[in-house]
Design goal:
By secondary structure, the protein is an alpha+beta fold. The chain is about 40% helix and about 10% strand. It has one domain (about 35-200).
């Protein structure tokens, strides 16, 4: 679907599900169904770029909500959100940021596979690696800040120290509307995804296959 940037409306444009599923659709099928050409680098790049744009819009909406809430809490008015509400919104924003980084990195991988001359989004690879190895990091007593862990056998989650802030914060960061996880420009991610979402089309008509468990395919 077309996506404007920055978003000018709420992220709530979903197609309704069918009210009922026929019995066999709900129970599953005796064989898997594959689509020839779906794994083509250009098509995968385009699909992941579309997913990235959706995740960017979702992240921007949650970051905007958190930015407003942070301002509103300082006013201490009756209409101000509670600290508990704010915490839940920040949690949602942080997860949305992680999803954005992961989908953007997958889009970047497929785009570069299709065209190795395409430059990477600055900082994206380090941010994605930091998220992937976050469970190995050193997390402070407040459980808000993650840093590279130094052990007798070497460093773990070492990409965290390569982030602009040298650490990863479980929270809003300094400029949530401009950067995700204080590490990657949101605009740079969006521009990359918009530039590659319309890569060469791959013909998929009449290319459905039944894939038996043993890996054989039948038309």
């Amino acid at each position: 679907m077309p996506i404007t940037w920055p978003p000018d409306g709420p992220f709530d444009d979903r197609r309704p599900w069918p009210e009922h599923l026929p019995g066999r659709s709900a129970e599953g099928f005796p064989t898997a169904i594959g689509v020839a050409g779906l794994g083509h680098p250009d098509l995968m790049a385009a699909l992941w770029c579309d997913a990235t744009l959706e995740d960017a819009q979702r992240y921007y909406q949650t970051a905007r909500q958190c930015s407003w809430a942070n301002w509103a809490i300082e006013r201490a008015e009756e209409w101000s959100p509670t600290e508990a509400q704010f915490a839940r919104w920040v949690q949602a924003m942080w997860i949305a940021g992680c999803r954005l980084v992961i989908s953007a990195h997958l889009a970047q991988q497929w785009v570069i596979l299709a065209d190795p001359d395409v430059p990477e989004v600055p900082g994206l690879r380090k941010a994605r690696n930091a998220i992937e190895h976050l469970h190995e990091a050193e997390i402070d007593d407040s459980q808000m800040i993650a840093t590279t862990k130094v052990t007798d056998s070497g460093e773990k989650a070492w990409d965290i120290r390569k982030l602009p802030e040298g650490r990863l914060i479980f929270g809003m960061g300094k400029k949530p509307l401009e950067t995700v996880l204080d590490a990657v420009s949101v605009n740079a991610i969006v521009e990359f995804a918009q530039a590659h979402r319309d890569r060469g089309e791959v013909e998929l008509d009449d290319s459905f296959y039944l894939v038996r468990p043993e890996g054989q395919t039948l038309l």
